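Hi P.,

Sorry for the delay on this. The queue was packed all week, but I finally got your sequence through. Input first:
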Amino acid sequence: MIKKRGGVSIIQKEQLLKQYFGHAGFRPGQEPLIDALLQGRDVLGVMPTGAGKSICYQLPALLLPGITLVISPLISLMKDQVTALREAGLAAAYINSSLTYPQYVEVLRRARQGAYTIIYVAPERLSTDAFLAFAQTAQISLIAVDEAHCVSQWGQDFRPSYLKIAEFCQSLPNRPPVGAFTATATSAVKEDIVRLLGLRNPLTLTTGFDRPNLYFSVETPKNKDLWLVSYLKSHCEQSGIIYCATRKNVEKVCGNLQRLGFPVTRYHAGLEDEERRNNQDDFLFDHATIMVATNAFGMGIDKSNVSFVVHYNMPKSMESYYQEAGRAGRDGTRAECVLLYAPADVQTARFFIDNSDENENLTEEERSLVRERDLQRLTKMVGYCKTKDCLRHYILGYFGEQSPLHCQNCGNCRAEMSEYDITTEAQKILSCVIRVERKYGFGLGVMQIIRTLTGIKEKRILELGLDQLSTYGTMSRLDNAAIRRYIDHLIDQGYLLLTDGKYPVLHTTEKANEVLFHGEKVMIVDRKQPKAVSIAATKETAPADKDLYNALSALRYKIANLEGVPAFVVFSNATLLDMAAKQPVIRPEFLQVSGVGNRKAERYGEAFMQCIREWRESHSS
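Then the structure:
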């Protein structure tokens, strides 16, 4: 094995790729980034989740002398990555707060003796005296910065500890090449990454944000809880994540599902550390196949067999949504990303933006600018929830990427659209808003307008005398959700204006006169619900014989339990699917399965091939 920069042949790289990682060839973008690092050049790789970012620094680590340091923000990611590397036959370790002091000292001692090829380290550890002393004498040949967008204060996951990375790199006797990797970064965040990490003339490569295996959908159910139960019943064999905006919703949703007998657990920052760890392990090891969590859970979670991500509430930004939704289908198999939208989610998101304390080190001017950008991101997020166009096109366009107008793999593309006239309803709503302004000299919030239109007899409505308006009760036959949708549409089309501030109120615009007095029509596009897309029935995830896939999956689960590792560490779902399709019964055939390297073939090959032989014998007649 070559241990020097450059001069590495394509054959050598591909041999190592197959031997350790089980892949027959490189994915888009991987090889140029690997070659640049081997030649001593800094890189910035922006690659979607599941595109193989980790290979871009793990494979160079095999070809370079000394140690590759991987700076990673989350303990869970480090543990999963190190476990997977050890399973593949690579010497790896991690350094973070989960280690006791004696364990920490032992890792450093073994590292000085050359025991590790790759060491994962938390950014907070870089500035400690013990680690700095180690780094001054260690042979560090490569530094990889995972989740590199965390360095930008304009990003959605800013971590001040990332600002110390550039200083650490400069402090080394010989600064090695630095590779920065992230799945989500706008052009402004990419500029920040290069500047704040001190990257030198980096090869910057963006492979694209598209995840073709993901099915995107936005749903607006009247009752999210009933919708969720129905959805989970149709996905009972799959593992998934349900994201909620608040701890309160996590507790509510998890409690409801537990009472109904679903294998579910929870995760949020309000739990004790031990419970969070135990719940996360239950999910990773498939003891609980459903995780209900806030956004405190997930960044760097390397669980490849997540088949769906449901957002119970709308996130604050497209960056957050795409990162969280992207935890589905990491192994390349088909997966679903469903967002349950309700107008109240917008107010919740605004509350979090207005009360954020994540940027306390910024000046008032900087904090104001961050808030303004957060509100702009929120507007784009709401636009995603409301658009009737292709959802994938909307996502990719947000990140500056060109794409077809229709993907045929999202809820909007698969749905049947119909346009209908809501002019009469629009006139009633606009008239109500105008009459309120004329009578009281001020506007009312959306819900007060809705309550007036439906004719509800509640104390506040009667106190204000809203029941005396001619528009009172004129839309009593419609439910609140329908009227709210019409109001949102009138805001989107510029007939109504919703003010900013703590108590936003509705006002009409000059454009409203065209509808009220000049015969302008108001049309709205309605989406008929598409037929349910069952990922279990799609071509990519349905093996030729599901019984064989299930038998292989059961064997994987048994082995994983015996070894004390998550099932996906043994083999991913994608590997089992390929195994079920190819049905290998001898070693050379087994090595042709995608995701099977030499080490895993040695450890698990005979057990899985025997399973296939037995299945073939029982189905030979």
